[in-house]
Amino acid sequence: MVKLNPLTWWRRFLRLPNESRMKTLLIALFVALGSAVAVSVTAVTLKPLQQANMERQRQAKMETMLATLPGMADLLRAANGDFLETVIVDLRSARIALNMDPGVYDFRAAMSDPQSSTPLARDIDSAGLGNLPYFMPVYILRRNDALALVVLPVYGSGYQSTIHAYLALRGDLNTVAALQIYEQGETPGLGARIADPQWQALWPGREIADHDGIIRLSVASGGATNQFEVDGITGATRSTTGVTKLVQFWLGDHGFGPFLSRLKAGEI
Amino acid sequence: MINGWKNTRLLLAPIIDNNPITLQILGICSALAVTTSLATALTMSAALMAVLASSNILISAIRHHLPTSIRLIIQITIIATLVIVADQFLMAFAFEMSQRLSIFVGLIVTNCLVMGRAEGFAMRNPVWPSLLDGLSNGLGYSAVLLLVGSIRELLGTGKLLGFDVLPTMEAGGWFQPLELMLLAPGAFFILGLLVWVIRALRPEQAEIPEFSPRTSDLAGPHD
Description:
The complex is a heterodimer.
Chain A: H1 6-15, H2 21-68, H3 72-78, E1 85-90, E2 95-96, H4 107-110, E3 117-119, E4 131-133, E5 135-143, E6 146-157, E7 162-170, E8 176-183, H5 197-200, E9 218-219, E10 229-230, H6 237-251, H7 257-264
Parallel strand pairs in A: 9-10
Antiparallel strand pairs in A: 1-2, 1-5, 3-4, 5-6, 6-7, 7-8
Chain B: H1 4-12, H2 28-33, H3 38-61, H4 71-93, H5 95-101, H6 112-122, H7 127-157, E1 159-160, E2 163-164, H8 184-201, H9 215-218
Antiparallel strand pairs in B: 1-2
Helix pairs in contact in B: 1-7, 3-4, 3-6, 3-7, 4-5, 4-6, 6-7, 7-8
C-alpha cells in the first residue's frame, strides 16, 4: 500500500543507501535548492541597502573632487548657493536633451539597456565600453555668465574591471581641473593605485588638446615629459593605459567632444 | 565521549599548537592580502570565522547522508553559498570595508582552511564538536592575521586602527614608515619570522627535512 504522508516519504528517502543513484541525485538537488534560496533571499533583501551605499559613495567622491579643486569652495559660494547645473546631453546630436529629467536619468542603467544605448564598432571602441549610452549627464558651473567648470562622468575598461571617474575641466575646456576615480576593481596594491589621491592630484593643470586640436592628454609610461602627460604608476601599466583610453575616448568625437566644441563656441 | 576538558583542548589547540597558518601553512594568500591594516584583518577574520563555523555545522549535520561520490561538490556548494551571503552582508552593512577587502572575502571559498576542516573534521564528528572546531580554527587564523596586521600597519604607517601611535616624520615626529611592510613581501617576512619563532619554541612542530645533502658531494671529488 502506498502512503501519501510526506513524512513517510522523507524517512524512506533518508533510509536509502548513500551510494544509490536516487539518493545522490536527490541530495544534490536539495543542496542546490537550499543554496539557491539562501543566496537569492540575501541578495534581494540586502539590495536596497547596497544600492544606497553605492549612491552615497558616488556622491561623496563628487563632493571630495569639488572640495579639492582650488578655489572651488569660493566659486560655489559665489554661485549664490546654486550647486552645479546638471544637464543631460544627447551624444548623437551633441545637444542638451531638454525632455529628459536630470534628476531621474541613470546612465549606469542605460549602459547595458539596448533601448537606450548603441553597440560600438570595435575600431571605435578604444576604451572597451561595449555599448555607448545615447544620453549622458554633464555638470556645468557658470560664473558671471562664463563657464567656470564642466564635470564629465566617464568610464571604460581597465585591466580587470570597469573604471568609473569624474573628469572636471576648467572654463577654457582644455585644461583638466581634476580627475576623481570613484569606482574600480583593479588589482589591489597595483592597478588599484589609480584611485590613490596622490596620483589623482597629478591631473589638475594638464592640458587636453594641442594647437591642431589633437587630444594628447595621457598617462606616460614613466615620468611625464610635457604639459599633456601624467606620470605613470609602476606595476599599473594596464590600468593607467585604461585611464588614458577612456579619457581620450570620452573627450573625442564619439564621446563628449562635439558637445564640448559647441559649448566652447557658445552655442549652448 | 566528549567531556569538558576535551572540548577545551579542541578549542585551544589550533591557536598555537596546531595553528592552520603557521603549522599547516593554509590560507596564506588571504593572510598576505588583507593584513595591510588591522581593520581589514579584523573584518576578514570575522567573515572567515562565521563561514567556517557555519559550514562545519551544516556539513556535520548532513554527514550521514552525503554520498561519497559527490561529497566534495556538496561541501564546496555549501561553503560558496555561505561566502556569498557573508559578502552580501558586508556590502550592505560595512560597505567601505568590503571595498577595501575587494575580492578577498569572495576568495574565502578557495581557502584550503575551510575545505580542510569540512573534510577533515566535520565529516566525521557530531555538530557540537564541529562548531567548536570551526570556531577554534577560525580563532587560530584570526590570531595570526591580527598579529601580522598590527605589525604591518604599525611599521608601515605608524598607526593602529587608524589612530596615530608612532609619530611619523611627515607629521614632525621621529618615525620613518617602512613602505615594505605594506607590500606583500613584508607579510612574507613577518609570517616567516613568526613560523621560525614558534618552531624554535616548540621544536616538535618542525618538519623532518625531505632532502639531506649527500655528504659524498660535500667532500669533493674522490681521487
